Amino acid sequence: MNEAQKPGFSRCNNATLRRAARSLGRFYDDALAPSGLKGTQFGLLFQIHVSDEPAMGTIAEALIMDLSALGHTLKPLIRDGYVETFPDKDDRRVKRVRLTPQGQAKLDEALKLWSVAQRQFEDKVGAEQAAKLRAALDAVADLDLEMPAAAPSV
Amino acid sequence: MNEAQKPGFSRCNNATLRRAARSLGRFYDDALAPSGLKGTQFGLLFQIHVSDEPAMGTIAEALIMDLSALGHTLKPLIRDGYVETFPDKDDRRVKRVRLTPQGQAKLDEALKLWSVAQRQFEDKVGAEQAAKLRAALDAVADLDLEMPAAAPSV
DNA sequence: TTCAATTAGTGGCATATGCCACTTTCTGCG
DNA sequence: CGCAGAAAGTGGCATATGCCACTAATTGAA
């Protein structure tokens, strides 16, 4: 790859991040394939699992994803019977989410496959390096980035 | 966010990466919004720009994306007149891609918006840190990760 | 030369994500 | 109490990505 190609391109933090995400995503997807889950779905099931019947908004916030996107992503998981929703007792606007027994089982199954990929990855880059990378990524994700927004004088 | 939530989740390198990508993606998307381009489209136009009438396969390889995905992503850009394709002179299977004059203009326009976002980001995390992060991400993207693939004895 | 295998793309199908407009509930204030 | 405004989701629409099956064009070897 000559000077003009990747280097110039990779100065963009966003593009570099997406590129890495596509690459790693395929790897984890492949690893999880036997379970029938995608990496994203696995992550979502796991997030639900470690939370306590979270509200949709809570999940969306934790994963930094759009609420409606979460709704869309949840649909196949509900359709396949891995997840179910129910209204909050005190606020009928709130919809809570939990794993079904099948969802729990599927997650357990996927966790085994995930471990293999995770270990493989960490063997390659080093557990320490991986942890640092994740920390850096979390920091980036939680940055309070905002466009100058046309600098309102007020 | 208590112990059970983000920390457990964020042990997954893939999930952490996607989360950061969603977050940063929105930031760059917002910045580019006035141009009408998404971050991905901007990246794609730029990649085409710095390459020399690349074949689709070449672009897909550089961006580590599926060839068919590239084809899909290219469609809106072609429809909007920013990009055009033409067959390779020597190999009729190969389809080459280039920016139209409008595409070039749009890229120039978007580059200004991109710079603002890029600068903003680097002011926050430090240019040095950002460069390190990109290097780490490129390293991850280019890792030769492969599943044991059921260890074929042959 | 001829045909099997390989290579480059396409189209269909499915998930991943976002934004926007709209509905339903709540909340807070007058 | 009653209504304006906020908060939580939904549905529609569009792009982002991948996989698979299939077509067209090339290549390599018999």
Automatic annotation (TrEMBL), chains A, B:
Pfam families for the chain: MarR
- Tell me the SMART domains matching this sequence: HTH_MARR
In Swiss-Prot or TrEMBL terms, this protein is called: Transcriptional regulator, MarR family
Transcription keyword on record: yes
Q: Name one GO biological process term.
A: response to stress
MF terms (GO), sorted A to Z: DNA binding; DNA-binding transcription factor activity
Note the InterPro entries from the entry. Answer: HTH_MarR-typ, MarR/SlyA-like, Tscrpt_reg_MarR-type_CS, WH-like_DNA-bd_sf, WH_DNA-bd_sf
Q: Which residues form the HTH marR-type domain?
A: 10-142
